[in-house]
Specification:
- Two copies of one chain form a homodimer.
- The first copy, chain A, is 39% helix and 25% strand.
- A three-stranded antiparallel sheet of chain A has the order 1-3-2.
- In chain A, helix 3 crosses helix 4.
- Chains A and B meet through helix 5 and strand 6 of A and helix 5 and strand 6 of B.
- Strand 6 of chain A pairs antiparallel with strand 6 of chain B, so a sheet runs across the interface.
- The structure holds a DNA duplex.
Chain lengths: 141, 141
DNA sequence: TATACGAATGATAATCGTTCTTATTTGCAA
DNA sequence: TTGCAAATAAGAACGATTATCATTCGTATA
């Protein structure tokens, strides 16, 4: 549990809400959380945090580089731990499960296309929405 | 001006708001419009439409296949005429200008990746956010 | 260890984009 | 023309997010 160092190096005080949120992301099998998800999970765990605090902390963590924010269809932002390595997402339309992937060829072609059009890439997002063909998909949406 | 046929074939009555919205998309150099954009433009043109109607019409046009909806960062939906041919987008971070591109290699790799992960692609969105390196960029954001 | 002060919090109001409700108007077929 | 279902405009309602503000907390310092 070296979370306080994470926070300190990000210039953030080590407070209970921040520790709890960070713990969720670091010690849970689920990698992707919306603000509402985090809020409910903390309430269920007996923590007494405010929704506004959750939003604030998530944004701070994003700015500190601890988390990455994604805008999937559906309006709400989704966060995940920043592993440093970029990847894209494939979202199951049945159950909402998110899987990650990285394809060198796709990344390279993006650079090529952008350069040819006269742009310098700052960021990009590739979201594939699909039906899971495996049995492991719970289809519980 | 064969818009009424467009509407009729989509099972939609030929009303003034619908004609005006469709006209905007068909006879304007700007291809991408948000609901708010459309609403303001129509008001400036002296039309007396309601914002709710604009939202309803845009959604109907999307369902009818006349328009395509995009979810860029920033939360709000953006629409454009459905030209039938899929393409991805590169958004200028300076001026918000949207350019379109299509890359066969990227499309093919996406199919490959999805198949390998056990998914059947239904839809996808690739948005590149970049700085325009040409002088043509108005940098007026 | 006590303390002081700025940072962080929680409750709630406000905002933004979008959808719903409802009373009124309109397109169009008979 | 007339009748009626469909479409509209206005504004209320909504969900996600941000702003406000009085209170509490973390921590550097004495």
């Amino acid at each position: 549990m070296h979370q306080p160092e994470h926070l300190k190096s990000a210039g953030l005080k080590s407070t209970l809400p921040r520790l709890k949120v960070l713990d969720l992301f670091e010690n849970s099998k689920e990698r992707h959380w919306s603000a509402e998800d985090v809020y409910k999970q903390l309430l269920n765990s007996g923590e007494d945090v405010g929704l506004a605090t959750v939003y604030r902390v998530l944004t701070q963590f994003e700015q500190a580089g601890l988390l990455v924010r994604h805008h999937f269809e559906g309006g709400k932002s989704v966060f995940e731990l920043n592993k440093g390595e970029h990847h894209d997402h494939i979202v199951c339309l049945q159950c909402g499960h998110v899987e990650e992937f990285y394809d060198t060829a796709i990344e390279a072609r993006q650079e090529k296309v952008a350069t040819e059009l006269g742009f310098a890439i700052r960021d990009h997002s590739l979201h594939i929405y699909a039906d899971c063909t495996k049995k492991k998909c719970p289809h519980k949406r």
